[in-house]
Design goal:
By secondary structure, the protein is of the alpha+beta class. Helix content is 25%, strand content 31%. The two termini are 24 Å apart.
């Protein structure tokens, strides 16, 4: 219960800060006393579900926006800390920098392709788009019978609902960032 009280306290403070509300202003909106709100923010009180519902209703936010930890406003993601998915004896590595988020509908991948390696990607869901930014090396991308050369610092955007092939025909490792947007994908996880 201590963890949820901590989350509620942090979320309530953040919402109040973003809306530039004093404790008194928050009390007026929610019908919860200023002293109770202060105790909740200082983690000195264990608010009832009824109190949380009143706060949520007064702020016009969902209950979960109070009881589920918010994503940080800023976050450093280190590639070295990410376990890559590896294929073809290590010639193709995918680092999920920002995994798929159903609300935002995109994911960000850092991809390494060893010299001479290639990877076939089957068509994605209709409407899916990819934006590739080459960091090091030269990527050859085969799409709809055409081959595109994408060099360091260059970007390439395409509809990826068709089969496409990533190729590194050079003698050096290729690194690129791939942002994939899934406008129609709904992620359902059944336990």
């Amino acid at each position: 219960m201590d963890e949820i009280n901590k989350i509620v306290a942090e979320n309530l403070r953040e919402i109040r800060r973003l809306r530039k509300l004093s404790l008194e202003g928050l009390a007026e909106l929610t019908g919860v006393s200023k002293s109770m709100l202060g105790q909740i923010e200082r983690e000195e009180s264990n608010p009832t579900l009824q109190t949380l519902w009143k706060i949520a209703a007064g702020l016009r936010v969902s209950l979960t926006s109070l009881i589920v930890a918010m994503e940080p406003q800023a976050q450093l993601i280190k590639k070295a800390d990410i376990q890559p998915m590896v294929e073809d004896q290590g010639s193709f590595k995918i680092y999920p920098i920002c995994p798929f988020d159903a609300e935002k509908r995109y994911e960000v991948l850092s991809i390494s392709l060893q010299a001479g390696a290639r990877s076939l990607s089957e068509p994605h869901e209709p409407g899916t788009e990819e934006l590739i930014l080459v960091n090091n090396g030269t990527l050859e991308l085969e799409l709809s019978g055409k081959t595109y050369l994408i060099g360091p610092g260059d970007a390439f955007k395409f509809k990826s609902d068709k089969k496409h092939i990533y190729m590194n025909k050079t003698d050096k490792e290729l690194d690129f960032t791939n942002i994939i947007y899934y406008p129609n994908l709904v992620e359902e996880i059944n336990e």
